Amino acid sequence: IWQILAIYMVLAANLSEQQALKQACPSCYASQLCNCSSMGLDFIPPGLTAKMTVLNLAHNRIKRIQSQDLKQAVNLRALLLQSNKISSIDEDSFQPLAKLELLDLSNNSLAHLSPLWFGCLFSLQHLHLQGNSYRDLGQNSPFSSLRNLSSLHLGNPWFSVIRQGNFEGIELLHKLWIDGSNLSQYEQGSLKSIKEINHMIINIRDSNIFSEIVRDLLHSVSWLEVTEIKLPLEKKSLVQNSIRPFRIQKLTFKEAFFTDQTISQAIVLLKEITSLKELEAVNCVLEGKGRWNTKEIARSGQSFVETVTIIKLMIQNFHLFFDLKGMESQINKLKRLTIASSNVFMVPCNLARHFSSLLYLDFHDNLLVNKRLNETICKGSWPSLQTLNLSQNSLKSLEQTAKCTSRLPKLNNLDISQNNFGEIPDVCEWPENLKYLNLSSTQIPKVTTCIPPTLEVLDVSANNLKEFELQLPFLKELYLTGNQLKTLPGAAPIPNLVALSVRRNKLNGFSKEAFEGAQVGTVHLSLMECHRSLVVLLICVLVFLVILLLVAIGYKYHMVWYLRMTWAWLQAKRKPKRAPPKDVCYDAFVSYSENDSDWVENTMVRELEQACPPFRLCLHKRDFVPGKWIVDNIIDSIEKSHKTLFVLSEHFVQSEWCKYELDFSHFRLFDENNDAAILILLEPIQSNVIPKRFCKLRKIMNTKTYLEWPAGEEQQQMFWENLKGALKS
């Protein structure tokens, strides 16, 4: 018996926990993916089971994680607890989660990190701890048991100390993100224990600490991304006695601040990192006019950087920026250069001629005009250039643009899209080997023989083209999306075409002559273009189904009734709210169900109309005007009566016309906050019998005194006296 009782109690407890879980977070019940985010929870709901693999409790108000909270969730792969108020975690809270791969504790209130939390998380790959309130990582490493960790996010505005040994146990990371905006102490060698980091992002402002970190990362990081740093760098060498080869290949500055002096110093120091191949600056600010220390830069030797990317560089008074004379020796090994969204309006010809190895140049979204382009691409400039992007500039002449680019002997890829050319000449001069040309969104009204015949790829999308009749024997890809074409381009003039895009045009059909026997491999057409009749039929069927659905919904929720009532109410609203006293002919209009007519006509009418003095009652059977719309009869009778008397019963609330009469009295009587309505309760009515749309009747019955028809004769006499008094008031 005791065993049975114990089993019963366990089952009851489990059932109770499951019910609690279902109540706290309905999506978790019997589900692998449990989403309880943004539900205002201040605790981890009980009843979590081994079925769950993902538990999302983000954006709640949880303050503590206790030992028993996750005890049954042994198969969790992801646990999301970010943006709560967690300040306390029991040491063995995560012990059952040996299969956990993602743990997000970011943006909470953790004042310290304990190694015991992560001791049993042998499968953990992604750990997010940023945005808490801890100031350091402790004296030792909290991550020593996380052998499979791939990405680690940590730090916060109060994070100030990194110590040696803090990262012991971690050998390889795909991504390391550190918010060290207020980092004030870094013990040399702290990050050296990590053997390999593919991508490290650090938010740091102290340039001296940045230098120390770089020295520790020379042999481990492939890509280092630094945000919010304010140079100057210290003049001390970044590599010191470090042994080559180094591993760092890419360095990115985001939202950094440079001056002419500090950028000169940075160029000199970064040359020491011989493995560095790519430099990137995004959303940075340069305060200066280009007065760089070019002599010191030149003395420091050749740069090993091959790719430079500058996006959204802010230079105050950029039009006063110097021509960087003296930098010629530093750019002749550069292979890829991007300067986008940075107000570039020209490159001096002499400087351009020294980009002798440059293969790729991207000047998109700048301020280049044709006059300045003529100097930027002067004779002998950019001798090795193969790809040029001049999109989103202020070029106006296609003929002049083509002539400038013809000075680039090796150019084969040109993007001049999103320039407002407007016109296209009949003849243009282009580079001899041009293979790819992008003229999309350039407002050209037609295509002419200005288009070079050497092209293999041509994009003239988003223009105003009405036809395409060019002889392009080598063309393989043609993009005509978003034009005004009514017919396909002929197949004969472009015999080697492999890909054709004609979306968003005005094509009505295709003919065999358009293809002239050429085999079409893959065609990507919209459903409307391929099966117009079928699409029209489907639309008609869909419209019919929508109408049918609306009719069904209207029937279920009495929409027709509401429309009829609204129309009647609008008519009633045009009339005066009260009839003039001379037009009031009745003491009361009586609203009742036909099923209650025996009591009304044989009992109440006899008692009131034979009283002394007699009361004048308006009854629909007797006093409605024949041939008049019944709704108008109801409205007029209510307006011409001093009172409206409702005989309430279960029959009443089920009667359609009683509903109308009651609703009109809502509009005309109850909304005026007067006592024109008298309620007689002929029999008890359950509140659930009253239709929901008569919310005012429910309210009136709860707040307004009504007369209840009694069973005894003595009480009936008192009832009549009270009713007569109410009619006279």
Structure description:
With 729 residues, this protein is an alpha/beta fold. Among the domains are: 74 residues, Ribonuclease Inhibitor (Leucine-rich repeat, LRR (right-handed beta-alpha superhelix)), CATH 3.80.10; 143 residues, Rossmann fold. 26% of the residues lie in helices and 17% in strands. The strands form five sheets. It has a 20-stranded parallel sheet, with helices on one face. A five-stranded parallel sheet has the order 29-28-30-31-32, with helices on both faces. Strand 31, helix 18 and strand 32 form a beta-alpha-beta unit. The longest helix has 25 residues. The protein is extended, with a radius of gyration of 42 Å.
Provide the CATH superfamily of the domain at 586-728: Toll/interleukin-1 receptor homology (TIR) domain
Return the average pLDDT rounded to an integer.
85
The profile of the biggest β sheet is: 20 strands, parallel
Portion of residues in helices? Answer: 25-40%
Task: Specify Rg, calculated over alpha carbons.
Answer: 42 Å
Named CATH topology of the domain at 586-728: Rossmann fold
CATH architecture of the domain at 586-728: 3-Layer(aba) Sandwich
* Range of strand content: 15-25%
Number of strands: 32
User: Count of helical segments?
Assistant: 19
Top-tier CATH class of the domain at 586-728: Alpha Beta
Which structural class do the helices and strands define? alpha/beta
Unreliable spans are: 4-17
Shape annotation:
extended
Question: Termini distance?
Answer: 74 Å
